[in-house]
Amino acid sequence: MFSRTTNPHRSRGCRQGAGAVRHRRHLRTGLSDGFDPRAPGRLARSLAAAVGDHLRVLPPDTRAVLEMLAVLDLRMPIAQLGHAAQVDSPSAAIEPAVARGLVDWWPQEPSCPVVIRHQVARDVVYAGLTASRRRLLHARAAVVVSESASWEHRVAALECPDEGLAGELERLAGEEAAGGQLVVAATHLRWASDISPARADRERRLLTAALHLTLAEETRDPALRQQVEEARPSVLRSCVLGAMAFSAGQLGEAQRRFTEALAQAEGGPGSQQLAALAAIRLAGICNLLGDGAQGMMFARQALGTGCLDAAAVSRARTLIAIGAAQVAGPRAGLAELGHLDADPARVGPLDADGLAFRGTFRLLAGDLGQAVADLTASLALARRGATLTLGLRAYFCLALAQYLAGTWDDVLLTAEQGLSAVALHARRYELPLLHLAAACVPAGRGAADEAEGHAALAEETAASLDDGQERVFAAMARALVCQAAGDYLGMADALGPWHDDAVLDGRSRAYAPLWRPLLAEGLIGSGQLEQAAAVLARLRADGGQVAYLAPALAWLEGWLAEQRGAAEQALRVYRDGEQAAGPHSPVYTARLLLAHGRLLRRTGNRKEAVDRLRRASDIYHGLRAGPFIARTEAELAACRLPAYPVSRQPALALTSRETEVARLASRGLSNPEIAAELFISRKAVEYHLGNIYAKCGLQGRQQLRRFVEQWHQPVAA
After folding, report:
1. Burial label, 42 (beta-carbon count in 10 A; 0-12, 13-18, 19+)
2. Is residue 489 within 8 Å of residue 272, measured between CB atoms?
3. pLDDT tens by residue, 645-697
4. pLDDT of 521-571, one tens digit each?
5. Residue 533: which residues within 8 A CB-CB, separation 6 or more?
6. How would you class 269 by CB atoms within 10 Å of its CB: exposed for 0-12, middle for 13-18, buried for 19 or more?
């Protein structure tokens, strides 16, 4: 019965407690002492044998202190350790272990703390304890550590099932889940399951733990999946299997399981809360499949039960907003989120999803500044422990908002963080949009191989999913790669399947302001003018109030007039577009200026052409958009003007990773802080900095800071 809780320190959720301390200690001591945790084979066995040899010759009091320390698995004050180990002179007892390199001791600190040096040493000591000795030491540990850390020791001290302790753990987990601490709650529920005498209680607690983990996207444990499948059929089991299918991107299977759960819950005693949960998950699936009306219906059904906790209520209200945005546009979605505080910094962790989608709707409605503020705040909540139960698309939307606003270096870091987050969770269905976010800046800067790699991964993942909308995101990534290469037919082919409004679902239409400009550009550039006119008409009808689309619409409509031979009409459209553009999106404003300058040059107005082309070139140099810099320079050369001097070019040679490192270093982050932010080693940071200094002719961080500030100054609409 207790095979899974012989040592509860091993439970996954315990990373937020003692396990986290152990992990940090391992990083501090492992490499410096010649022990590489990445090579646990022969070296680990050798160290284990050496520890065993040391233990056999240690005095009894030293062994007693080490055993207690192994059970505690913490950095402990020597006095508390001695009290728990029932050793009168713990300082004297610990000295032989210090001499043999088994522990680290800090006698110069007031509390004289001590900790076992290597995890392997700790494991050897713990493994050498008899079962009765372990239970005894865990019982002592429970009264030494904090209340939050005592639960695992109380569980490990048991010799037989204990419904009383299991009930306490279940109540604790309920409070933690209500506060958004889903992984910790799941850990306590799994312990409660393991010590439950009755099968029904064991299965209920296990399945509830699994349900929490599916909400937190932490269900990749094969043993947990097997335990769920072995449980008897129930509403809760169907919900868990549905959530697991959803995380794997199997939306059809997930929908079947949750529909099954809803049917099982009808009329069942005590099943109303599970029915509400199934309805919420069905609402999320319907929204992902683009059926916003059905999504709103299920979410309102869940709210109508009146049995949702605060976190679930927030989720349901956000799902209603998502459905409303699909049915009636982003402003309708924003109206449904009117209960959120206007200041994103004052929105609490339970509303992290609502804040993320408020930012998304603001992006789609054209409010880039507010979108960035909301999305940044929602991700800050996630980093502080809030769970984004409705997905990681906040990273994608923030990256797109930053891209349109011209802060391209910020895009690189946001995309990096998003891909790192999705790697920690079973969220395969979010990979296409995150690879799109990661592809847009490399494509715009001419890093063709990097952009192509992300586009290919987006296409590969989207093809394996049930959801057609993810194919739109993959097609956007492909279109951006083609755009940088000047391949307009490739752009049109990539997004061509969504040309016809009849094939679009609600989600595809909601996100149309992001992808329709790419489709229109491809159609105009490849000579498919009638289709382009139809796409532009829909874009203006659906996105005419989106501020950052104003220069895009002027550029595309003027270019379409050019292609039809109406040069005077095109000039009027370009001129009116410039006057209405404003500072909303330098990306589209630069395209408008380039197109206008090119046509002015061709119609003989060289002076005005040069003015537009230089302004476009300034924006593109600020973005370091290599392919577009080349186009503006070609137009300036045709005006018989030289390109910018070589002194303005070094930043263009930096890779995406080098750009990220340069940006973080310019903000004053140290090498270790940069490494932590980008999930790379310190040596890698040093390597990238060396390349940056060499490529840009810089010496030291002060020059690097000025250099980074300089390359952003020209970006202005």
Report:
1. exposed
2. no
3. 544 555 566 777 777 788 788 888 888 888 777 767 777 777 678 777 777 77
4. 999 999 999 999 999 999 998 876 788 899 999 999 999 999 999 999 999
5. 560
6. exposed
Residue 239 shares a structural domain with residue 262: yes
Q: Coil, helix or strand for 574?
A: helix
Beta-sheet pairing, 113-116 with 76-77? antiparallel
534, 561, 591 — which closes off a domain?
534
User: Distance (Å, rounded) from C-alpha 547 to C-alpha 581?
Assistant: 8
Tokens 């306490």 map to which residue?
168
Orientation angle between helical segments 292-304 and 272-288, nearest 10 degrees: 160
Query: Nearest to residue 597, comparing CAs of 589, 527, 485?
Result: 589
Whole-angstrom Cα distance, residue 586 to residue 368? Answer: 12
Question: Exposure of 100 by Cβ count < 10 A (0-12 exposed, 13-18 middle, 19+ buried)?
Answer: middle
CB 277 within 8 A of CB 207: no
Query: Helix, strand, or coil here: 103?
Result: strand
Same-domain pairing of 503 and 554:
no
Q: What is the largest CA-CA distance in the chain?
A: 97
Examine the domain organization and report whether 616 and 673 are in the same domain. Answer: no
Residue pair 404/551 in contact (Cβ under 8 Å)? The answer is: no
- CA 512 – CA 542 distance, rounded (Å): 8
Residues 525 and 565 grouped into a single domain: no
Distance CA 226, CA 404 (A): 45
- How much is the pTM? 0.69
Q: Is the dihedral of CA 699, 703, 708, 712 positive or negative?
A: negative
Q: Which are the contacts of 372, defined by CB distance < 8 A and separation ≥ 6?
A: 359, 398, 401, 402, 405
Q: What is the Cα–Cα distance from 70 to 293, expressed in whole angstroms?
A: 56
Q: Are residues 635 and 663 in the same domain?
A: no
Q: Which two structure tokens, joined as six digits, stand for 686?
A: 């040093």
Query: In terms of residue numbers, what domain contains 507?
Result: 391-534
CB 260 within 8 A of CB 238: yes
Q: Which two tokens stand for residue 173?
A: 């987990």
Q: Is 474 left (phi over 0), alpha (psi -120 to 50) or beta?
A: alpha
Residue 610 in tokens = 């040069």
Q: At what angle do helices 352-365 and 368-383 cross, to 10 degrees?
A: 160
Q: How far apart are CA 131 and CA 71, in angstroms?
A: 12
| Location of structure tokens 């987990």 | 173
